[in-house]
Design a protein that fits this description.
With 179 residues, this protein is α+β, with helices and mostly antiparallel strands. 31% of the residues lie in helices and 19% in strands. Strand 6 and strand 7 form a beta hairpin.
């Protein structure tokens, strides 16, 4: 007759201890992973604003008669004789959600019309203006990102720690320079 102690395998207590240890390790690791994801989303938003600055500069010098595009749709339209727009297709519309951030472009509050829409080389829907304002804010503050970012004609990127939508003329109290 076999003894019960000679049976091979793990006891229920041993399995429960292993599961508890795995749970503790996961509880320690998950918040760090979420912070890393938010940090990556913020880096992507900053990269999108830098791409907008670059695209606006190219648009101004080659297509807008020293004026800037008013919307992301205008920047995504290719100039005559080309098949590529001034900005990548993933930023082809205002209000686009990219990596947990909503990105927008508009004329700045002090912008004046430089060129009527029919005179730009890519037949933009809107007239070229003297100044632009772009912003990116998290879809869900505290989950997809913590800070909101903005830039304007000067090319400086600003951030606000509350994560709310930043309005044109945002260089007021509470906003900090990123670069």
């Amino acid at each position: 007759m076999k003894k019960i102690r000679d049976a091979k395998g793990f006891t229920l207590i041993e399995l429960l201890i292993v599961v508890a240890i795995i749970g503790i390790i996961a509880a320690i690791a998950v918040p760090g992973l979420l912070r890393a994801r938010m940090s990556g989303n913020e880096a992507s938003a900053i990269g999108s604003l830098r791409a907008i600055n670059s695209a606006e500069s190219t648009f101004s010098s080659s297509c807008g008669a020293n004026g800037y595009a008013v919307t992301l749709e205008d920047l995504s339209k290719p100039p005559s004789g080309s098949s590529a727009g001034f900005i990548s297709p993933d930023l082809s519309a205002n209000g686009v959600s990219k990596s947990g951030y909503i990105v927008n472009l508009a004329g700045d509050t002090s912008a004046a019309t430089i060129t009527v829409a029919s005179k730009t080389c890519n037949a933009s829907a809107a007239a070229a203006v003297s100044a632009y304002f772009a912003e990116a804010h998290p879809v869900t503050v505290g989950s997809t990102g913590q800070r909101a970012f903005a830039t304007d004609t000067r090319g400086t990127i600003y951030f606000n720690n509350n994560g709310g939508t930043m309005a044109a003329g945002m260089t007021g109290a509470g906003d900090s320079v990123l670069q």
